[in-house]
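quick q for whoever's on today - can somebody do inverse folding on this one?? i tried earlier but teh output was garbage lol. tokens:
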């Protein structure tokens, strides 16, 4: 079996409501669908979410690097040789989500060709994972209303709270309002998306000490090296690295040099292959992981639950899996469902998703 063709299809779907956070906002999903086809007709798919405010990738750059740089490496290759392919792509710096999408599509081909779900091939630890919902910037009343809706409708009891505004007391008060409304049993944690400097972030961590929060994600820019290390040492909350750890090497650096005490794994940027390595490093060091959300589409969320449910260490905490419900539509035939606060990992061969070709045709941007 050899790879015959590689497609990178730009498409756009609107959001039902904007998601606001410290480093940007999402009003539409301008993503790229990766489709890899073999000479015997097996098709692997993945979704790539370009985030210029996080990694510098754009929809156009993702399409270009996949079709002009990665495609020559892929066409004619055996899809089972994913580590060889990864080594070839590694010669191109950056482009994390483009590489992640290619890797996921290769795993999809592998699973379909052997008739097994990728969830089972990766390890198949648990059939489902708990869901955490991400609450964006809004008034306290609106944030509480959203959280209560997701709890009452879907049984979700874990919430990531977007913070990073000035004055910082706005976000401290928002966290306090959510804690009061949701009660002590709810799991709450903050994500500042680098919105503050280290000194501001330390003040927020101390101000929230009585709110029983689990984590404080990317409170300041990791390039603020000395301040970040002091923050990790003095914060009453565990500091989660996210945007600052887009690769295995970055994870190793931040953990070994004291830049973080927990890690967010996002399959959108490290695929399945590198995510396995990151997870193994964290488990071996006794470091908590969260399966994060790149404001993923439903197809992207399929990859997250597939990986997160495959291992014990990645399924301990609730995974960020609900924000696809804020998209105006989806392009796969098998919708994910949240019930009693969990999502089941797909069991069909591959990643367990197939394209709705009519919807892809309607939303793709490269139509003649």
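ok took a stab at it. sequence:
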């Amino acid at each position: 079996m050899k790879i015959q063709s590689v497609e990178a299809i730009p498409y756009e779907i609107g959001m039902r409501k904007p998601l606001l956070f410290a480093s940007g906002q999402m009003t539409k999903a301008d993503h790229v669908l990766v489709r890899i086809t073999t000479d015997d007709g097996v098709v692997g798919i993945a979704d790539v979410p370009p985030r210029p405010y996080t990694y510098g990738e754009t929809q156009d750059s993702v399409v270009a690097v996949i079709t002009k740089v990665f495609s020559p490496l892929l066409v004619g290759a055996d899809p089972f040789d994913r580590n060889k392919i990864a080594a070839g792509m590694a010669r191109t710096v950056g482009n994390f989500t483009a590489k992640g999408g290619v890797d996921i599509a290769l795993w999809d081909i592998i699973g379909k060709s052997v008739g097994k779900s990728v969830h089972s091939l990766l390890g198949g630890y648990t059939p489902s994972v708990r869901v955490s919902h991400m609450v964006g910037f809004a008034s306290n009343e609106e944030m509480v209303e959203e959280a209560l809706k997701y709890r009452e409708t879907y049984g979700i009891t874990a919430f990531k709270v977007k913070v990073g505004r000035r004055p910082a007391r706005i976000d401290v008060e928002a966290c306090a309002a959510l804690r009061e409304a949701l009660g002590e049993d709810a799991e709450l944690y903050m994500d500042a998306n680098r919105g503050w400097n280290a000194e501001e972030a330390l003040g927020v961590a101390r101000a929230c000490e009585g709110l029983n929060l689990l984590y404080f994600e990317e409170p300041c820019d990791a390039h603020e090296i000395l301040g970040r290390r002091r923050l990790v040492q003095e914060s009453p909350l565990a500091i989660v690295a996210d945007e600052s750890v887009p690769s295995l090497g970055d994870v190793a650096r931040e953990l070994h040099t004291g830049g973080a005490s927990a890690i967010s794994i996002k399959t959108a940027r490290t695929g399945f292959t590198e995510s396995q390595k990151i997870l193994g490093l964290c488990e071996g060091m006794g470091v908590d992981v969260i399966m994060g959300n790149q404001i993923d589409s439903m197809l992207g969320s399929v990859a997250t639950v597939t990986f997160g449910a495959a291992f014990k260490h990645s399924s301990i905490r609730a995974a960020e899996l609900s924000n696809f419900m804020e998209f105006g539509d989806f392009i796969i035939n098998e919708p994910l469902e949240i019930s009693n606060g969990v999502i089941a990992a797909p069991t069909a061969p591959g990643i367990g998703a197939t394209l709705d070709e009519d919807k892809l045709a309607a939303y793709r941007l490269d139509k003649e």
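fwiw The mean pLDDT is 96. also The radius of gyration is 20 Å. so keep that in mind when u check it
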